[in-house]
Amino acid sequence: MNRLGARVASTIRQIQSSIRWKPGKAVQHLKRRIDLGHLPPGATVHEYQSIIFAILGDPLADVFVYSWGDTLYPTVVSEYDGRRWLVMFSLSGVMETAFPPDDPEEYLSDPRFRRLGALRELLS
Hints:
5 helices; 28% strand; 39% helix; alpha+beta
C-alpha cells in the first residue's frame, strides 16, 4: 500500500472508533440533513452518527480521496437504507460531512475524486 493509502486507512480506523466534529458542527449538519429530507424530522445526532458508523463499517464501501487545492479529504461511499451515502472527513480525523448525493455517479465523477479501492482492501 502506498503512503497515502496507509494514511487514509489509519484515519478511517480512528473515525470507526470515535466520530469527531468541529465544535457545533454536528447539530448544524444534522439540521441540514433534516431540512434536505435526507433524515426524518426529529432525527438525532446519535442516529446520524449511526449511519456514518454503518458506512464506515461496510467492507465493500468504496474509498476515495477528494482534493481541494492541497488539502485531501478521505471519502467513504456505501449504501444505507437504499441510498448511496458519502462520508467525508479530514486526514486528521475530523468529520466534514455525510450525505446521500442526488446523483452519486455524477457527483463522484468529479476529477477531484480519486478512488483508492474497497474499504476491506485498504484496511487489510
